Structure formats: C-alpha cells, structure tokens
Amino acid sequence: MEKEAQVEDLQTRLDNTRQEVVRAMAKLQTLATRAEAASGIAEAEVALQTLKSNPGQLATPEGTQAARLLKESSTEFDKANYGGALYLANQAKTLAGAARGRLAAGERGAQRPGETAFALPIRLVAAGRGNVRAGPGTGSRIEFGVEPGDALIGYSYVDEWIRIGDDSGRGGWIFRSLVSRP
Q: How many CB atoms are located within 10 Å of the residue 16 CB?
C-alpha cells in the first residue's frame, strides 16, 4: 500500500508538471505550427486506435492515460496553444506504445512461476549487444537481438531475467546485465 501511495503521489506530481509545461509553452508562443500540432494529434490518435480496436485493451493504465492526454491535447489545440498540444500528443503516443508493449508481453504467455510484475513499466536501454529469448534462460529460443542503446520497456522479472518489449511490439526475456536505465 505504501508503494501504491508513492506511485499515486508521483503520478500527481507528473500531471502537475505536465500542466506547467503546457502553460509555459502557451506563454512562450513556441515555434510549433498548427499543422505540426494537428499532425501530432493525428499520430497519437492512430497509436490509440490499435488499443481501441479490442475491447478492454484501452483499460491498461498507459492506455487510459494516453486517451486523457490526447483529449487535453485537443483542448490546447482549440486554444491555439500548438506547442502545448504537440507536447501532449507526443506524450500520448509514447504511452500508447507502452500500452501496446504491455499487452504484447501479456499475450506472449501467462505469468511464469516466480515472475514478479513491476508496478509500472520501466524504460530501459540495451547496455550492449544481446539476445532476447522466448523464456527466462539461456536454453530458450532466441527471438531477436538488441544493439547498444536500443529502447526497451521492462514489465516483470524472474530471478536475473527481465520480461521486455520494444517499440515495434516484439518482446521476450533478456538477462539483467544486458540492460540499464536510460
């Protein structure tokens, strides 16, 4: 319960900070144009369409937040705050990608014995060249390779293995020493 309270507090802080950024962008009259903002909103809507296509999938924490940010982006667009609208649309796209990754990781199999889910997806990067495997262990089939700096998202772990996904929807397991925090 303590961790949940901390996560809730951090989410509130993030929301407040995000609103400050949007207000600051409105004051600065950023160079973002109406067309750029409209394009960003359209891209975010497309990213959310994959989540909306299957009932219940938008209910992931990331999907729900992405939908809310997209709505806020449209509101800022209507106020002619194109910089703020573009910022919020990009945030929505990022969260929609995380939601797709979480769903893809869940589709790849039920939780394994001893697997512990992270409270929230964790951004990771490949620390070096490595293999992502179908299961937690060197005996599992190789799904794909990663290169240093590749962006990944961690969802859970078993011992020294982390269940990850990437922006293209691929996923699997990678050894802990092959990833780091960005």
A: 10
